[in-house]
Amino acid sequence: MQSLRGRFFIWLIKNRHLFKFKLKPEVVDENFSVKKFRDEIDRASARVKLPASVSVQKVSAAGINAEWITPENPVDEKVILYIHGGGFISGSCLTHRMHVAKFAIECGMRSLVFDYRLAPEHPFPAALDDCVLVYRWLLNEGYKPDNIIVGGESAGANLTLTLLLALKAEKIAFPKAAFSISPITDLSCSAKSFEYNAKNDVAPMGSWIVWTNFYIAGNETRNPLLSPLFGNFEGIPPLYICVGTHEIHLDDCINVAKVARDQGVDVTLRKWEGMIHAFPLLTPLFPEAKQAFLEVCDFIKR
């Protein structure tokens, strides 16, 4: 049963249009402005202060802007490589350092977040290529694969899974494990949960079509490096997949978990009743978010 705080905060998020004095929720269509969307998120993110218990170090990871988020007394040599979300069209170190800081503090591990290239300026496979490049950079910096955990939310959760498939194809050593929070795994957006959860989730109506098409840019959606549902996961390290039952991506998560399990992967699929897209990042606003976040961190530490 959902907590009262959970119901309250999810209601606020679903009805955020009211705080802009708009009677109806936003609908994403051909008039959508990527620049305006990014600017709004950046302005909000710039006002957030990080906890004093973490430090931020800017770094060039093979030419890609990145930031080390380091907690006090981190575990030696072990790192989290965090791939941010944002619908493939937004997100950056600025927008996600606050979230990555939570993982760094709770897990006691240095965490790297980076600015992969975004659509529509840089469609597939630019973002994935950058993820592979940054992972290779970590290896070249001396980090052992067994000391690296990869993970992300939303678009970053998709890129987490496709990164593993790309590493397999290129015969690059896998990280120790990976976590994927609310991934879209079939970019055709044809899973039934895109219909029955369209009004339950918090994604703007139509965004999953417009935003993913910016990234797909005419490529075949059954390409496993776009849609990991169609990939071969045999030999992939342990996976933790987290999803809410009110998400448009619910079926995508259930389906990819089954595919990976059938191919011999150690998969943990955690479904949270009544929860919305990428809700663990909302910790500590309500109990379900905090508990889900701590479960992901327990997986990382384990």
Features:
single chain, 302 residues, alpha/beta, Rossmann fold, eight-stranded mixed sheet, 9 helices, 37% helix
Order of helices and strands: HHEEEHEHEHEHHEHEH
Low-confidence stretches: none
Distance between the termini: 28 Å
Instruction: Kindly give the count of domains.
Output: 1
The number of helical elements comes to 9
CATH secondary-structure class: Alpha Beta
Radius of gyration: 18 Å
Largest sheet: 8 strands, mixed
- Strand line-up of the largest beta sheet: 1-2-4-3-5-6-7-8
The count of DSSP E runs of length 2 or more, i.e. the number of strands, is 8
Percentage of β-strand residues? 15-25%
Determine the fraction of residues in helical runs and give it as a percent range: 25-40%
Q: Output mean pLDDT.
A: 96
- CATH domain fold name: Rossmann fold
CATH level-4 homologous superfamily = Alpha/Beta hydrolase fold, catalytic domain
Proper CATH architecture:
3-Layer(aba) Sandwich
Pairing-aware structural class of the strands and helices? alpha/beta
Question: Looking at the structure, what is the overall shape?
Answer: globular
Structure overview:
This protein is α/β, with parallel strands linked by helices. The protein has a single domain, classed as Alpha/Beta hydrolase fold, catalytic domain (Rossmann fold). Helix content is 37%, strand content 16%. The protein has 9 helices and 8 strands. The protein has an 8-stranded mixed sheet, sandwiched between helices. Strand 5, helix 5 and strand 6 form a beta-alpha-beta unit. Helix 2 packs across helix 3 and helix 4 crosses helix 5. The radius of gyration is 18 Å and the shape is globular. The protein starts with a helix and ends with a helix. 47% of the residues are buried.
